[in-house]
Amino acid sequence: MVYLYDSPLGPISYEWDGEACQHVWLERLDAVNHHDPVSAWLDGYFQGESAALPLLAKPATDFQGKMRAGLLDIPPGEVRTYGDIAKVLSTSPRAMGQALGANPLPILIPCHRVIAADGLGGFSCGLAWKKKLLKFERGF
DNA sequence: CCATTCATAGCCT
DNA sequence: AGGCTATGAATGG
């Protein structure tokens, strides 16, 4: 089922099947508010706490699993470049972009903490969110 | 220093 | 299998 969460930064919709979070959209969908581990985590997140993640959808590929681990390893408020992660995961920067873009769980998986070497990089749900999230995490 | 081009690896159709 | 990147490094002007 898809539920809505109204965050300080904007509307978030997510799919919760009762067991795990399957998908996250950074937009307002036709959904209702709901209390579950995802909303609880979001509550914590937007209060500046990094709580334990709810159960997430199984990574589609093994690589996405590794990538997820790599991303969760980024300290809160810090950012890394695609190349940096790529080096850690022994892969290529482009593959990072692909995998991140295919990530169905933005925010939960902190893919917004990954930026390009010289710029912001991209974001599947709109760069505005990425900017807002980074600004938020940096304490602005 | 700015503009192009290429290498690279994983994802999508 | 082929094309497409949310890149980065190396050239060329």
Describe this structure in words.
This protein is of the alpha/beta class. 34% of the residues lie in helices and 17% in strands. The strands form 2 sheets. It has a 4-stranded mixed sheet, with helices on one face. A two-stranded parallel ribbon has the order 5-6. Strand 1 and strand 2 form a beta hairpin. The relative contact order is 0.16. The mean pLDDT is 94.
Please specify the SSE layout and strand pairing.
Elements (H helix, E strand, L loop, with lengths): L1 E6 L2 E7 L4 E5 L6 E2 L3 H10 L15 H11 L7 E2 H7 L4 H9 L12 E2 L11 H11 L3
Helix pairs in contact: 3-4
This protein binds a DNA duplex (13 and 13 nucleotides) through α3, α4 and β6.
List keywords for this structure.
alpha/beta; two-stranded parallel sheet; 140 residues; DNA-binding; 4-stranded mixed beta sheet; 6 strands
Q: SSE order in H/E notation?
A: EEEEHHEHHEH
Q: How are the strands ordered across the major sheet? A: 3-2-1-4
Helix and strand content put the structural class at: alpha/beta
Which stretches are poorly predicted, pLDDT < 50 over at least 5 residues? none
Task: List the total number of helices.
Answer: 5
Mean pLDDT over all positions: 94
Estimate the global geometry from the Cα principal axes: globular
Number of strands: 6
In terms of DSSP E residues, the strand content is 15-25%
Radius of gyration: 14 Å
Main β sheet profile: 4 strands, mixed
* Helix share bin: 25-40%
Please give the alpha-carbon distance between the first and last residues. 34 Å
